[in-house]
Design brief:
This protein is of the alpha/beta class. The chain has 2 domains: 63 residues, Phospho-2-dehydro-3-deoxyheptonate aldolase, domain 1 (Alpha-Beta Plaits, 2-Layer Sandwich), CATH 3.30.70; 260 residues, TIM Barrel, CATH 3.20.20.70. Helix content is 33%, strand content 19%. The protein contains 11 helices and 15 strands. The strands form 3 sheets. An 8-stranded parallel beta barrel has the order 7-8-9-10-11-12-13-14, surrounded by 6 helices. It has a 4-stranded antiparallel beta sheet with strand order 2-3-1-4. A two-stranded antiparallel ribbon has the order 5-6. Strand 9, helix 5 and strand 10 form a beta-alpha-beta unit. Helix 3 runs parallel beside helix 4, helix 3 runs parallel beside helix 11 and helix 6 crosses helix 7. The radius of gyration is 21 Å and the shape is elongated. 46% of the residues are buried. The structure holds phosphoenolpyruvate and manganese (II) ion (MN). The site of phosphoenolpyruvate has 10 residues, from loops.
Length: 344
């Protein structure tokens, strides 16, 4: 349920609505808009009871029933696009943010070299995993805290904020000490305990779509985070499992306009995990921007054959730089531009 206030409603009238919503046993979410404030109501298990009382209160324009199972993430609740601020970098809005870096932090030289290279090519956020969710328990699992420290050094060197994966609630406090943005990986998209825990922080979250998750599942997962009070969520389409196994996953480009219609949250695309090999990344990245993505997250490695994780899909710095030149042109064709390290 959404209570839309009159354009000239006073602060007291808005507060009164919030108080009555609490009195009815629900949670109010006041959302000031450019012309009027709307107050979302959550916490109801069935229809909201007591609407007659709300509609009679002074300053109320109308009550709108929200039909979607997710509320706080829905466009119905919040019409304008949300912009998530990661350090000095805005994700969402008219410009496009490119996140790049290695799949995994492997060593000091590796991460610093790649960070420097992607920064000079125009990336605005550095990615890199210190805790890695690997399909096999026998493969490299990440450097843990040492990896986080190396990411911090890379941030100091380049000025880029860092996004890194948090795999569980045990390591969340530690990861929070280092990360500017927390990544929730595809394998953890439905780890509701973790979603609630990151929801209790104010740290921006990059929520990746599970590879067997519907768009509704993804939006409901995001709802867990917003419901705990953290509105800083960016959604990521990274490919889903289909019957076709010619690429690592199948990039669902249609998810971009669909999510944009259903939700106000920014959407970015990960062409690297979708494709699984370096050759296909440029066309998917171009397509993602053309389809309306607010950003990309791309894996880059200075020496892919020696990468400890996801070497097949890593771009070398020179290819990444070439890609950025092309993406600038695609962005311009859809009336957008790439954020550059100098204008963040
Ligand atoms: C990653 O970004 O390195 C990663 C593991 O991604 P995903 O969770 O999408 O598989
Ligand atoms: Mn990876």
């Amino acid at each position: 349920m959404l209570v839309v206030m009159q354009a000239n409603a006073t602060e007291e009238q808005i507060k009164r609505i919030c108080d009555v919503v609490v009195e009815l046993g629900y949670a109010p979410h006041p959302m000031p808009g450019p012309t009027r404030t709307a107050i979302g109501i959550t916490g109801n298990r069935g229809p909201v009871i007591g609407t007659e009382r709300l509609s009679l209160l002074p300053g109320v324009h109308e009550l709108i029933r929200i039909t979607a199972p997710y509320k706080l993430v829905s466009r119905e609740f919040h019409e304008a696009d949300t912009i998530v601020q990661v350090g000095s970098v805005p994700i969402g809005g008219s410009s496009i943010a490119v996140i790049a870096g290695p799949c995994t932090v492997e060593a000091r030289e590796q991460v610093l070299q790649v960070a420097q290279a992607v920064h000079s090519a125009g990336a605005v956020i550095l990615r890199g995993g210190a805790y890695k969710p690997r399909s096999s328990p026998y493969t490299f699992q990440g450097l843990g805290e040492e990896g986080l420290q190396l990411l911090r050094t890379a941030r100091e060197m380049t000025g880029m904020p860092i996004v890194t994966e948090v795999m569980d609630t045990d390591t969340l406090p530690l990861v929070l000490e280092y990360a500017d943005m927390l990544q929730i990986g595809a394998r953890n998209m439905q780890n509701y305990t973790l979603l609630k825990a990151v929801g209790r922080t104010k740290c921006p979250v990059l929520l990746k779509r599970g590879f067997a998750a519907t768009i509704k599942d993804l939006l409901l997962a995001a709802e867990y985070i917003l419901d705990q009070g953290n509105d800083n969520v960016v959604l990521c389409e990274r490919g889903i499992r289909t019957f076709d196994d010619s690429a690592r996953f199948t990039l669902d480009l249609g998810a971009i306009p669909t999510i944009k219609q259903l939700s106000h949250l920014p959407v970015i695309v990960d062409p690297s995990h979708a494709m699984g090999h370096a050759d296909g990344i440029l066309p998917l990245a171009r397509a993602a921007i053309a389809a309306g993505a607010d950003g990309l997250i791309v894996e880059v490695h200075h020496d892919p054959p020696y990468a400890l994780c996801d070497g097949e899909q890593a771009l070398v710095p020179e290819s990444f730089q070439q890609m950025m030149i092309q993406l600038e042109r695609v962005a311009a064709a859809v009336d957008r531009s790439l954020l550059s390290p100098t204008n963040t």
